[in-house]
């Protein structure tokens, strides 16, 4: 006789609903977004359903996801009440970081006060920048706190963008006198000599991402004037040799393409009253075969030195198109498989 085997019952997630009332119907329209695009993003990310009933939103789903959605919706509504807008990027930020910061405003005074529980906001001439992930938040904290900071991770994680934003913020508040942005002019399939024009024309295409970031934070005419006055400099890494960079906010982008000698040269340019940020992606090295990356050497040699911070990003911190994160994960998985 075969004994009966008792299978334990499978717990079925409880589907319930929560109604949220929003008193200002105009703010509710902004909260939902054009064609309810903001609600659709929350539904897709959390696997819940949101129905609109007058000035109420009905959230339907499992307990954990439903509570997360309610927190995000309340945080976004609080943001609208404070006079700020809500775009898809703001929705993404709340979904990534949670609503623990909702309703709190930055403290007055020194920017370091922002690290005492309130949201981190970087003020520039054109827009207010807010980190969208915990890694970005820790990175911005390091940029304000440390004289030398490294940001290492894949493309699209905001390493350079946030560094330039902090540089502009410190410049317009008088904490530094200059902004200096640099990159190694390393070819990725094309030779500099084959490009038309003088040296500036040849180099500018390599510097374009830095120009793009600056133009996001400063009016175009002001940027052009500051560049003309040398208060903002955008130059290849080779142009840094022999200089002492004092009272400046200095960013070295694409640092994985600096050689060890170039990296040592650049790091020793740091002068009094300056901040220096090094950003790079260890998976996108374009140096010739056999030439070691200065970023890897700096990471190995400097990690134990106080007041030098290292912040790391992963595909989870990508804030570009969602496909970018998927592409990075696919390449990472392939690289891991090759090592087995």
Please provide a written account of the structure.
The chain is α/β, with parallel strands linked by helices and 340 residues long. The chain is built from 11 helices and 11 strands. A 6-stranded parallel beta sheet has the order 8-7-9-10-6-11, with helices on both faces. Strand 4 and strand 5 (128-129) form a beta hairpin. Helix 1 crosses helix 3 (63-81) and helix 2 packs parallel to helix 4. The radius of gyration is 24 Å and the shape is globular. The termini are far apart. Mean pLDDT is 83; it is low at 99-115.
> From the helix content, strand content and strand pairing, which structural class follows?
alpha/beta
Task: Assign an overall shape.
Answer: globular
Return Rg in Å. Answer: 24 Å
Mean pLDDT: 83
Main pleated-sheet profile: 6 strands, parallel
What kind of oligomer do you see?
single chain
Spans with pLDDT under 50 lasting ≥5 residues?
A: 99-115
Terminal residue distance: 49 Å
Widest β-sheet, arrangement of strands: 8-7-9-10-6-11
SS strand fraction: 15-25%
Total helices: the number is 11
How many beta-strand segments?
A: 11
Order of helices and strands: EHHEEHHEEHEHEHHEEHEHEH
């Amino acid at each position: 006789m075969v004994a009966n085997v008792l299978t334990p019952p499978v717990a079925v997630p409880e589907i319930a609903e929560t109604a949220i009332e929003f008193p200002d119907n105009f703010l509710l329209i902004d909260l939902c977004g054009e064609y309810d695009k903001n609600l659709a993003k929350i539904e897709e990310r959390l696997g819940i359903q949101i129905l609109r009933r007058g000035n109420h939103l009905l959230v339907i789903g499992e307990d954990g996801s439903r509570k997360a959605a309610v927190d995000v919706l309340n945080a976004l509504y609080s943001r609208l009440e404070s006079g700020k807008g809500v775009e898809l990027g703001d929705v993404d930020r709340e979904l990534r970081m949670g609503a623990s910061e909702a309703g709190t405003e930055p403290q007055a005074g020194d920017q370091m006060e922002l690290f005492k529980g309130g949201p981190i906001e970087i003020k520039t001439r054109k827009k207010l920048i807010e980190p969208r992930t915990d890694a970005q938040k820790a990175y911005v904290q390091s940029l304000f706190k440390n004289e030398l900071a490294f940001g290492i991770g894949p493309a699209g994680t905001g390493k350079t963008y946030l560094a330039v934003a902090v540089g502009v913020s410190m410049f317009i508040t008088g904490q530094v006198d200059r902004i200096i942005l640099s990159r190694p002019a390393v070819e990725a399939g094309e030779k500099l000599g084959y490009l038309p024009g003088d040296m500036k024309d040849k180099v500018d295409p390599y510097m374009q991402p830095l120009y793009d970031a600056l133009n996001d934070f400063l009016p175009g005419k002001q940027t052009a004037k500051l560049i003309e006055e040398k208060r903002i400099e955008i130059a290849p890494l080779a142009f840094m040799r022999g200089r002492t960079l004092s009272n400046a906010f200095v960013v070295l982008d694409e640092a994985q393409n600096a050689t060890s000698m170039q990296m040592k040269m650049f790091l020793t340019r740091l002068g009094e009253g300056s901040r220096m940020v090094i950003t790079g992606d260890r998976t996108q090295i374009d140096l010739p075969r056999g030439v070691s990356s200065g970023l890897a050497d700096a990471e190995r040699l400097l990690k134990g030195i106080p007041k030098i911070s290292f912040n790391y990003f992963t595909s989870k911190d990508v804030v570009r198109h969602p496909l970018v994160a998927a592409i990075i994960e696919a390449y990472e998985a392939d690289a891991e498989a090759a090592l087995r």
